[in-house]
Amino acid sequence: MDKRRLVIALIVLGALALYALAVPALAGVDDRITDFAQARTAPSTAHLFGTDASGRDLFVRIAKAIRTSLLIAAACAALATVIGVVIGTVSGLTGGWIDRIVMRSTDAVNALPHLLLGIVIVAMFRGSGLAVVLSVALTHWTQVARIIRSEILSLRSRPYIDAAILAGASRRHIIIHHLVPATAPQALIAVVLLLPHAVWHESTLSFLGFGLPPHTPSVGTLLEEARSSLLLGGWWTLVFPAGILVVTTITVAVAGSALRRHIVPKPTVAIR
Fold this sequence. Notes:
mainly alpha; MetI-like fold; about 0% strand
């Protein structure tokens, strides 16, 4: 069942990736050009997803938005995982008072409201994609750090680690050749499971006006633009971006869950 879900999820993700990459290149439509004569045109054969308040084709803009949101989400997930892996590894290897300080600091960060903390970070650099990446990464590394720390503590008690130490292997050799390969599956799963969270956070920040600039097509900016059109009957300006967002995040979450059960049979702590 898990393998079937993984295959279906990968097929859907492949279709979304093809849509995001191929449509803007092959459509032959410049979505940056406004045409108010075509403003809020309902879905038709000429405009499959209709047009927005500026007369721009939503089929093309949503494709670009998905590409932008997924790229930012991937950067967020990768950076958060790197931070979590480094902190978790240091905490697990050193132990003692350093481990206690690191874990209490992790609890403190984890207790903060992630969205409010993200708003504070991006508010200082409004309209910057880098600020969005930092805001998500700096609030979502905590669970990764806990998972990696737990894995490191488990690995430290394995007989082959003791054998390597007795054989004269340095700490660097043990980390590179034993600990890193053993924790790599957990890190990969963390990246995949963080992707839907990163997409939602980027979309939320952009929707609230704190994320990407309005002229940059992302799922969040399209949803923000849809508010005024929805009051005038332009339901398609909300339904299609929101539908693509839901399909993307659910598909990535299903793929990550199936991948986790396939790679790591033991249950792990879920990422918020």
